[in-house]
């Protein structure tokens, strides 16, 4: 059983609750945040649907959705880890942060924690994708130990246009 709260040196990852809407929605509705994502900018209903889904399925054992907060409880983003193939012990993860907190190493800390959590869940391979132009996210993934494996052509249909994705992965020690 994985603890519901994961603590890094500077951050807490915990389950979302309904009260998180107030700080989460301004982030998910921000076009600067969703520029490279396959969702958003969110309407209030979209963010509510995300929170509803997180409370339904985001507590494991195969899908985890966490609020990322500072130790004082200030919400600054979200992180997700999903076991995509239990049989092959494969998982994927993602993250997003409040732009006011960018450039302080927080996403790298989150990504490294997600890889460690995947390992503690017994995963053998962990994957993440990002938009080819999302240089900050690609760097975050490299710093978390993932390697660029390929460019997936027309991987996503986003707001009416096809987008490639970069596939990053790490093979974890058993
Ligand atoms: C991508 C994102 C998570 C990065 O968060 P962050 O907390 O600023 O990331 P970090 O500070 O941990 O590290 C960013 C790294 O990228 C580098 N970087 C930032 N912008 C860059 C750019 N335009 N080109 C190249 N490198 C860049 C930083 O220098 C840093 O690397 P370094 O530590 O070697 O100097 C954040 O910008 C975000 O939430 N974006 C919106 C949502 C999103 O795109 N999520 C990822 C979907 S795949």
Largest sheet: 8 strands, mixed
Contiguous helical run count: 5
Identify the CATH homologous superfamily: Gcn5-related N-acetyltransferase (GNAT)
Distance between the termini: 18 Å
Domain count: the total is 1
Topology as a string of helices (H) and strands (E): EEHHHEEEHEHEE
Structural class: alpha+beta
Q: Topology, please?
A:
Layout: E1 6-7, E2 12-15, H1 21-28, H2 31-34, H3 44-57, E3 63-69, E4 75-85, E5 90-97, H4 106-120, E6 125-130, H5 135-143, E7 147-158, E8 161-171
Parallel strand pairs: 5-6
Antiparallel strand pairs: 1-2, 2-3, 3-4, 4-5, 6-8, 7-8
Helix pairs in contact: 1-3, 4-5
Residues 33, 36-37, 94-97, 102-108, 130, 134-137, 139-140 line the site of coenzyme A.
Keywords, separated by commas or semicolons:
single chain; 174 residues; alpha+beta; Aminopeptidase; eight-stranded mixed beta sheet; 29% helix; binds coenzyme A
